[in-house]
Specification:
heterodimer, A: 360 residues, alpha/beta, Rossmann fold, 3 domains, 7-stranded parallel β-sheet, 15 helices, 8 strands, 49% helix, globular, disordered C terminus, B: 143 residues, 6-stranded parallel β-sheet, 6 strands, binds guanosine-5'-triphosphate, binds magnesium ion
């Protein structure tokens, strides 16, 4: 393991690429690598890029790569695309937009499939980003699957969350529904060359004023780190760079031509500098690990519940529910006692439903 | 969590022609067959293809060529892979490749060549075989 880590540190691409594949697997060796990585990384800001399909995430990353390279940065990219729900296969197409950087030694791009993980990130995303960090790439850019409705956990693991919307992608109602605006540290309106861009810019600004007066993200976040029973809220997952109660900045760009992307980069570098402060680093590392624990625990619990649901003893419970002898609550409670508290607590109990338990 | 992940295949077009219908068809077919397909787009250089293949740690590379420069381009790709110590990556080709070139391609380790009109089922089974057996085993041109 140490030999592998050494090779990666020395810049061996093959070892880095293979370690990424290993990190995408289960098993002891993979686990050892992942645990090792957690301890040796955490100092480089990760920039997350998220937004609806086709909005221009890859194109923007491509343009930013060019600019960051000019500044002498070595940049790592993890690009996530969805796994097909029918075949387990995936079309990883983000790289098409970034091919001009393919032979640049100082750029490393890795495509990942979601493996059906909800929230736009794959299990391996974190590990790949950490590996890039270990290999000396700084910053690390993460493009998440553009599902639009379910893009929340990207905020939990990245240091800077860039939400991209674009002309031609619905109206303000859809923006609000998607919950994208709440997780943004910076909001990008792309495709400003298209006719309805101005309208969208205005709508986004209005929406942000509304949502920033309704919540104060940082307050919720610090609740969460102090007591594990913090109120569930979208912003809780985000370490956030945007000061308390302040709406994120809105920047209009044309990713393809590069127009105004330099302005966006300035903003990003500002957030990046803030994210490098020791205090921020500590917070971000904590939130990231919390996301990781939550996700892993969830998987274990879901599996336990699934096993429980097909167990012979459960047939009685199901029959009891069908016959009206048992209430749904009773059945759920019965199952949860045996399998796992967490997986059942996730949804139903509205009153005092805590997302993270320390006592169970 | 599953210990075995889907195999990864890089599909790209080298050379100057811009027809990517065939390549995109294969991309979708492979995705539907359960592979993770990394698509690199058209007009790529052998250098770009090999670097992407290494970084993405793919199990196979499929190149589509219609320009007629297939011998030069494919031999360059094979050479670069060798230079990287990555000969274990299965290399296959698709496109308008005449019979008389097959022997040469075989000498490069390219045992699977799919020409326009090749049956999808044949392509898929040949690939599956190659991916479980490695580049040197069996196979031949499928038409
Ligand atoms: N008009 C216009 N089109 C753009 C701009 N930026 C990107 N596009 C186009 O939008 C399309 C999608 O771009 P991508 O960068 O692939 O978008 P994406 O968000 O990465 O897409 P997914 O990864 O599939 O979700 C491409 O055809 C781009 O050329 C822009 O500033 N203006
Ligand atoms: Mg993309």
């Amino acid at each position: 393991m140490d030999a592998l880590i050494d090779k990666i540190r020395r810049g061996d691409r093959r070892s880095l690429a293979r370690a990424m594949s290993l990190a995408d697997k289960a098993g002891q060796e993979a686990q050892a690598l992942k645990d090792r990585l957690r301890r040796s990384t955490g100092n480089v800001p990760w920039w997350g890029f998220t937004g609806p399909p086709g909005v221009g995430k890859s194109t923007l990353i491509d343009t930013l790569l060019g600019m960051l390279r000019q500044r002498g940065c070595r940049v790592g990219v993890v690009a996530v695309d969805p796994t097909s729900p029918v075949s387990d296969g995936a079309l990883l197409g983000d790289r098409v937009r970034m091919m001009r950087h393919a032979v640049d030694e100082e750029v490393f791009i890795r495509s990942l499939a979601t493996h059906r993980r909800e929230g736009g990130l794959s299990d391996a995303t974190l590990h790949c980003a950490r590996l890039l960090e270990l290999a000396g790439y700084d910053p690390v850019l993460i493009e998440t699957v553009g599902v639009g409705q379910n893009e929340v956990d990207v905020a939990g693991v990245t240091d800077i969350c860039v939400v991209i919307v674009g002309a031609g992608y619905g109206d303000d109602i859809q923006l609000t529904k998607a919950g994208l605006l709440e997780i943004a540290d910076i909001l990008v309106v792309n495709k400003c060359d298209l006719p309805d861009a101005n309208r969208l810019l205005n709508e986004v600004r209005e929406q942000l004023v509304l949502s920033s007066s309704a919540t104060s993200g940082q307050a919720v976040y610090s609740d969460l780190t102090k007591s594990p029973g913090g109120t569930p809220d979208r912003k809780q997952a985000s370490p956030g760079c945007t000061p308390k109660g302040m709406a994120p900045e809105v920047v209009g760009i044309e990713a393809k031509s590069g127009k105004d992307v330099d302005h966006l980069l300035e903003k990003l570098l500002e957030l990046d500098r803030a994210a490098r402060q020791p205090q921020q680093r500590q917070r971000h590392k904590q939130t990231r690990v919390l996301s990781e624990i939550r996700h892993s625990a969830m998987l274990v619990c879901e599996q336990a519940l699934e096993d429980r649901l097909v167990a012979p003893a459960t047939k009685e419970l199901i029959a009891g529910l069908e016959r009206g002898e048992l209430s749904l609550d009773q059945v759920v409670r019965e199952l949860s006692v045996i399998s796992c508290q967490l997986s059942v607590e996730r949804e139903p109990p509205r009153s005092g439903g805590r997302r993270l338990r320390t006592d169970g | 969590m599953n210990a075995s992940r889907p195999k990864r295949i890089l599909i790209g077009k080298v050379g100057l022609d811009g027809h990517d219908r065939g390549a995109k068809f294969i991309v979708r077919a492979l995705r539907n067959a359960g592979y993770e397909v990394i698509y690199t787009g058209i007009r790529r250089t052998p250098e770009q293809i090999v670097r992407a293949a290494i970084d993405e740690d793919v199990d196979a590379i499929g190149l589509s060529l219609l320009s007629g420069a297939h011998k030069e381009l494919l031999s360059r790709v094979a050479e670069l892979l060798k230079g990287e110590g990555a000969e274990n990556i299965v290399l296959f080709a698709g496109g308008t490749i005449p019979d008389q070139d097959l022997a040469y391609l075989r000498s490069l380790g390219i045992n699977r060549v799919f020409r326009p009109g090749a049956a999808l089922s044949g392509i898929l089974s040949a690939l599956e075989e190659a991916l479980t057996g490695g580049r040197s085993t069996g196979g031949g041109a499928t038409t």
